[in-house]
Amino acid sequence: MTGKIEVLATPVKEGRITTNSGTDIFHYAYRYPTSGTNGLTRGALVTFQVERGNSEMAVGVCLKEPGESSQETETRPREVRYEGFEQTRNIRSFKFHAWRTGEENQEAIVTVDLALFRKHGIGIQEGPGLCLRLLQVELQEPRPDGSVAWTRTLTDKEMLAHLAGRVTSSRRRS
Prior knowledge:
By secondary structure, the chain is an alpha+beta fold. The chain contains 4 helices and 9 strands, in the order E-E-E-E-E-H-E-E-E-H-H-E-H. The chain has helices spanning 71-75, 114-120, 127-138, 156-173; strands at 2-7, 15-18, 25-28, 45-50, 58-63, 79-88, 91-99, 106-113, 149-153. The chain has a 5-stranded antiparallel sheet with strand order 3-2-1-4-5, with no helix packed on it. The chain starts with a strand and ends with a helix.
């Protein structure tokens, strides 16, 4: 992931890194540099990993080099996690988080009119999976505007494609 140092860590207190969108904040511990200075300063752009088992702690904090390429990470697909939904009247908004090592987390929201589920005889419980398949394809491309928020509305056309996929898979099992 990438972010900016907001508070520099010292031997007695943790530092703080904020992602560019400001939505994710991570803490990191001071690490005594083995030789010279590690170059970390307040406001520096850094790369880091999230500590396994502690989603608020950054590890492996390093300065991000200007123009540093992340070709290796760009070839890996983003991981997507379903976070839940909100509903206003007949519109349900399915919320997801997507991430890829070395990049900023993305928030993705897919809205759908519940009337489409009824119209096509699709159970509402299929909604998160249907949206997830859509996101796994579309989130692989970077946003042209560079934003980390992503919104999409599930359409009648995608519902029909989902139904066609169900028919095809049931024929294969027969």
